[in-house]
Fold Putative phosphoesterase.
Amino acid sequence: MADNADGTVYYVISDLHIGGDEQLEHVEFLDELLAFLEELETTDEDAELLINGDAFGLWEFTQLDGVEKFDSLVSSYPQLFEQFRATGENVQITLLPGNHDYELAAYEEYVERFAEYNVDLVQEESITRPVGERELWLEHGMQRDPNNRIEDFGNQHDKPLGYYVNRHVTSRAGQLSDRGRYNWLKDIQAVAPMQRIPTWMTSKYFYREMNPLLRYAAVPFLLLFNISVVLAVLAGLDLAGVWSAPMAYFESGLVYLGPASTLVYSLLAVNVSVVGLLLLIGVPLYLVARDVRVTLNRFGIFEDDEPADPTKPYHEAARAVFEERPQTAVFCYGHTHRPAVTELEDRLVVNTGTWLKRLYRREVVAGLLPPVFQPSFQLSYARIAAESDGIVVEYETVEKPDPIAEELTYTERLLTVGIEPELDIPNRSVVSEDATVPEPKPEPEPAD
């Protein structure tokens, strides 16, 4: 952490999602978070730590109500709250509510309880901070998401669709996770966007929960699925007398394999038969499933397609803030778990990502095997300060090994060998303070 004598230095993190029912209590990054807070405890900077929403998973508690959840958090994570107290004696700690801990905005008692640990809970949708001659805008971002928008902010009874998804799906996953062959179901909170949950569960069932004998028996057929589809079509054309040459070439080619040709031919013949049966059953089932998805989309119950540009509503929000408040140099948000630093109209839009595990979907090129969801950690924070060359955003990561060896089966690792997640974010971005700040638009005159 570099020294800076020109005004306050801001450290911004978000989306820790600490707490929840049963298996959701386990915080895989707790040691790293404590170390980060300990470093801030000893900094000689004039610094402020801004926790920009979803610090806690209050939606994921189903057996407790209101501030009882605070008592549970303190009981489960005493080291963390004592470290808050110690760090808060040296730097200001400001906490904003997100959607998963929206209750922080709805109960005044939370303000008093967090103050006991030197954490200033601000019950607002957004806040600003001066940085040099400009301004930093912070919001969690749930208000830009129709599934998690709080229409009546501060009303404890206002619960968007996302609340019910987390209460009945994520929390239930935390209660059941340790019943599996491997404790993986709790990672459902790391699946983003939530439209991927059905595919993720299919993948984990196949690679983790399916009886190993069934899985290893199915793998050859699934790997050869594409070849078998082609052979099934060619065999049909041959039987119909439409086009026999390809099958003739194929059968003559098997002769060069010698004794192994019988085994290969038998395997492919069985595989083609299975594929034919699957196609016979699968095509009508696919058409029905597709019609169901279209119907659910029409009613807005479940949108199965990820937006083409998931950053669009946040960039539009940033543009609106830049227009209304021209002095704003940086628009900072979280919520989507997608870390990013983007230049927009000579200003910066920053997403601080998440400290949860991230799951990268990796498609398996061959056959019809389910995709693999590769786990990775990107424990990130943004350091924002006014320096000699302008408003500087430094994107920093805290080192933590990826849990690939522990969490992926040999089959999953083999199918994704050589594929690593990439995070293409500049380490240092600058908004020049010399840039011309546009004049704010005059307020419209009231109508007569």
In short: The radius of gyration is 27 Å. The CA atoms of residues 104 and 110 lie 6 Å apart. Residues 224-299 form one domain. The chain has two domains: 9-191+308-431, 224-299.
